[in-house]
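Quick question about two entries, pasted in order.
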Amino acid sequence: MTTRLANGGTAVQRFWTGDYYNEGNSSNRDSIFDKLKEECGVFGVFGHPEAANLSFFGLHALQHRGEESCGICTSDDGTFHYHRGMGLVKEVFDRDRLEGLKGSHAIGHVRYSTSGASQLGNAQPLVFKYRGGDLAICTNGNLVNEPGIRKELEESGSIFQTTSDTEVIAHLIARSSKDLVEAVRDAFQRLIGGYAFLIMTKDKVIAACDPHGLRPLVMGRLGDAYIFASESCALETTGAEFVRDVEPGELLVLDKDGLHETRFAPIERRAICAMEYIYFARPDSDIYGLNLHSARKRMGQVLAQEAFVDADIVTGVPDSSISAAIGYAEQTGIPYELGLIKNKYTGRTFIQPSQELREKGVKMKLSAVRKVVEGKRVVMIDDSIVRGTTSLRIVNMLREAGALEVHVRITSPPFMNPCYYGIDTPNPADLIASSKTVEEIRQAINADSLFFLSEQGLIDSVGAHPNEKNGGLCLACFNNDYPTAVRFEEAKLTSCSCD
């Protein structure tokens, strides 16, 4: 295939490249793996005496969404107790910390920083004091128009304490003369972007999703208590019963009188992030009634129909591609094998000073099973190719283990465009599909063949909202069709509301 994938290469100079990126150069933040990173996860409890402990377990279930920092804030008869720290949930919270977080209401957060500074001050939930008392906020997502709102607020006297665009919401609420719920409604009506918010006061918890539903948020029940989480797997972990997904543009308010269901905006074009289905969410989670493992299996099955290749074994790059690899194998009849093994105990890998050590870092996280792949023609299933460096290393790893052929199949279309809704996207110049053809990418990653799942194949595999445009998915990173207005020269590329 020789069709060029670029959609206007010179436009990349318009994009803000963030604190960690230099224009035209690759980021070194994660030189071992060039996988995309989800920015964060949120968890909330209203009306349970063990709110802090439930939040601990819920955040642990959401750890894959952010490994850099975490925090929990509880409300105990109007008094806030909170703790935030850098590191994993199990590192930041011990029994003593959790016992000090008293109260029946809580919101919590796990964070992966993108462009913002990696520091405790940006860890969430953010806690503020204003005329109405204490206010805690945490979010998953990114506010595209945050720079303009921040500038406006600063020019009118607001003083910001963090680089987080979550703080913009606090300032908008504090400056309003209306009651809290109306102030929150007005604030959300000013926002453009993809987000799921949890807000807590001394006696209320408020949950909301952007009008397009770009970021997931679910609601559950545990006895008389209400639980909110970025993914349903966190409900399962805490023993809560799934109730429903929080709808786009919805504003849910919980207080002493129970649940109040209202809206701050009508549902616009549904456009949940396709990468949630492809890569980010855990396979045991459900989004809009669709199980992620099942959806990924269908992606593998459709990919097999679109791009069959005669081979001896099928293997998936762990962990997110295992389901798709099983689907590909079932569809083709080619045996599925564990040709690649991930070491789950390596922790976070930091920048290594030499190419040799970087290569060892790859093998520390991932290794090929020689006795499985040696002498075999291998179909390697992966979820995406970003810069191409990881794909090259894995293909070479399989070849070094004795694979005769390595055929790469990707369960997403070519990733060509930056995300403005909360995914850690590299400098657009570093997205290999923005400037290379499929054949050029194949050569760059040293594969015998390469095929990407088509957009229609992805839509058919997921089918979350079949009557909506793109099946209710945001495919902007593949086709440049952004569901919201984006002023590229102002938008904060790769910055999320956690930053």
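Here is the second entry:
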Amino acid sequence: MKKLVSILLLMLYLVSTTELYQLLKIPQLVEHYIEHKGLNAEMSLTTFLKIHYDNPVKDGDFGKDQKLPFIIHAKPLNLIFTLDKGFELELQNNSFKNIVSHRMPSKDEGHCFKGFVDVVWEPPRFSFS
């Protein structure tokens, strides 16, 4: 039961926040294709898709064309959370402890980057000609 509820909630979330809801319009696509197939028996599915998605034109069924999936894109749901004005965050100074760090020098700490940092951005001193 938990698995079914979690799948249902995930699907509701995805449908409301992504373009996944466009897949719910597929029955309208099939119905509209059947209408066009009734008017022109030789129309293939690829021709139908090219007419409606590749080069859409304003014709007599433009209103139905706008209801097809992935024609019009809506803005997804935005969730905004705000804090109440009465919300306060108190930090207690006594809960933080000072950390004392003792630096341990490496073997050649003074010579590690000596001369490298200054010349890394300089142009080359010789040319290949």
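Reply: The chain has a mean pLDDT of 79. DSSP finds five helices and no strands in the chain. Hope that helps.
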